[in-house]
Amino acid sequence: MPWTIAPITLDDADEVGRVHVEVWRQAYAGLMPADHLAGLDPAAFASHWRDRLLAPVPGVEHWLARDETGIVGIATSGPGRDEDRPTPLELYAINVLARGHGTGVSDALLARAVGDRAAYLWVLEGNDRALAFYRRHGFADEGGRKPEPDTGTLEIRMARSDRTP
Questions:
Q1: pLDDT digit string (tens) for 130-150?
Q2: Residue-wise DSSP of the chain
Q3: ∠ CA 156-95-97 to the nearest 5 degrees?
Q4: Is there a domain that residue 48 lies in?
Q5: Does the residue 46 lie in any domain?
Q6: In terms of Cα–Cα distance, which of 114, 155, 105 is closest to 138?
């Protein structure tokens, strides 16, 4: 395995902010407005990460994957945030740089963030790579739809039941 998984710490905030923006620009090109993606600020993202880490929410977990050149991906999960949540656990995000695609790092982040538990998530409509990944892990479109808050881009809710034997 060319990477390690660990909890995100305050010392990681600047790099996590930079990686978070870079992943969005890579993954959402053509799905979100180009001017929105170009205007994302790594320093602002880092500040948000510091805020999250300094004021942790019970049950919320933040993970990173680090390879030989730095952070390659991040994942966050916690209590479902939707009034009509289909399961108690929500996968808030998995964000992996293109250099990590096909390496298994996304699988490892998902395993750490939710394991085999029942969970749900939101994914941008048209993000075919992510949709295929989540389907491969037992998630299915359960009908929920909402606009992404900053751009209005449609998000699809996917869920799966408990997969523990």
A1: 999 999 999 999 999 999 999
A2: ---EEEE--GGGHHHHHHHHHHHHHHHSBTTB-HHHHHT--HHHHHHHHHHHHHSPPTT-EEEEEEETTEEEEEEEEEE--STT-SSSEEEEEEEE-GGGTTTTHHHHHHHHHTTTS-EEEEEETT-HHHHHHHHHTT-EEEEEEEE-TTT--EEEEEEE-----
A3: 130
A4: yes
A5: yes
A6: 114
Contact status, residue 106 vs residue 94, Cβ threshold 8 Å: yes
- The residue segments making up the domain with residue 108 are 4-160
d(CA 89, CA 142): 15
Give the total number of structural domains in the chain.
1
Q: What's the token pair of residue 100?
A: 């990590």
Reported as a single tens digit per residue, the pLDDT across 18-60 is 999 999 999 999 999 999 999 999 999 999 999 999 999 999 9
Residue type, position 147, single letter: P
In a domain, 145, yes or no: yes
- For residue 50, the domain's CATH number is 3.40.630.30
